[in-house]
Structure formats: C-alpha cells, structure tokens
Specification:
Strand order of the largest sheet: 5-6-13-7-12-11
Helix content: under 10%
Shape: globular
Length: 157
C-alpha cells in the first residue's frame, strides 16, 4: 500500500522507518510548508487505486494492526476485545453514547478510554469510544486524531 502523509505544521524531523510499511523517504521542508512522507515498498500496487488507509501503530505499548484512518469518522473507535487484549480495560470510563452510521444504523458505546499512540515520532494521548462488536478493523482513527496530529492522510500517490 502506498501511504502519503502531509503534515501541515512542519519544522521538525520525524522518524524515517516504519516496521509495517518498509523504508520511508522523508523530505524536510521550511516551517509552514508541507511534509511529504512516502512509502517506498509499493511494488505490486496497481495505480490508481481506491484502497483504504490501513496501518499498524504502537498504542498503549502494543503493536496494533488493522487500524483504519478514516477522515469521515467524527470519533476514534476501539473494540472492547482489543482493549482487553491490551490489558487496558481498567482504564475505560463507563459511558454510553450512541454512534450513528452512514446507513442510519446505530451502536451504543461501552465507555471511553484514553490511550497513548506512537506514530512516526508523534506521541499523543487519544480518546476512544469503546464498542463491543465485530468489524474488519481493530480500531478507527477519525478526524479528532487526524486533526490533533496535524496531518492530511492520502493514499493517492
């Protein structure tokens, strides 16, 4: 998968390795310009493509795979099963919210949890809504996280 992140605050160098996506090429720009981070292991990727942006991240000292980066999501979501596997269920604050899907379906959350995410040199405490359901991804990082780390996610390169 080709992954491109444009970081809008610029000015500091980030890590130049990714364990899942191979070598990264990082260009440092002047402060106020865009960062351009590209995966170099795009062999076999047919372009143009419409693949979802799915990555692995270190979250709460755990390598979490199948993390969907979704600029269409207004919340960050983590599965209760994943929280248990991380042995972080005790950090959850019980709280019920209703999350609505694009098809007008809804799911009730079990609570909220704040976990530390390590993403290529950026470390952020991130609030998640905890859901007890099955889905194709272990977690979804939506606009709150995307905006917090000042990036523009893109797979179009």
């Amino acid at each position: 998968m080709v992954v491109v992140w444009a970081v809008v605050n610029g000015g500091e160098r980030r890590s130049s390795r990714s364990s899942k996506h191979g070598d990264l090429d990082v260009k440092q720009m002047q402060k106020g310009q865009l960062w351009d981070v590209r995966c170099l292991d795009a062999d076999g990727v047919l372009t143009p493509h419409n693949n979802a942006l799915v990555i692995s991240l270190i979250i709460h000292d755990t390598n979490v795979k199948r993390v969907l980066i979704d600029p269409g999501s207004s919340v960050n979501i983590i599965l209760l099963r994943v929280l248990r596997e991380m042995q972080a269920e005790d950090k959850m604050i019980p709280m019920v919210h209703t999350l609505a899907g694009f098809d007008n379906s809804s799911v009730l959350t079990k609570g909220e949890v704040t976990l530390t995410i390590f993403a290529e040199g950026v470390v952020k405490d991130t609030k998640f809504q905890v859901v007890d359901m099955e889905m194709a991804y272990n977690m979804i990082l939506g606009r709150p996280w995307i905006h917090e780390i000042d990036v523009v996610p893109s797979t179009l390169h």
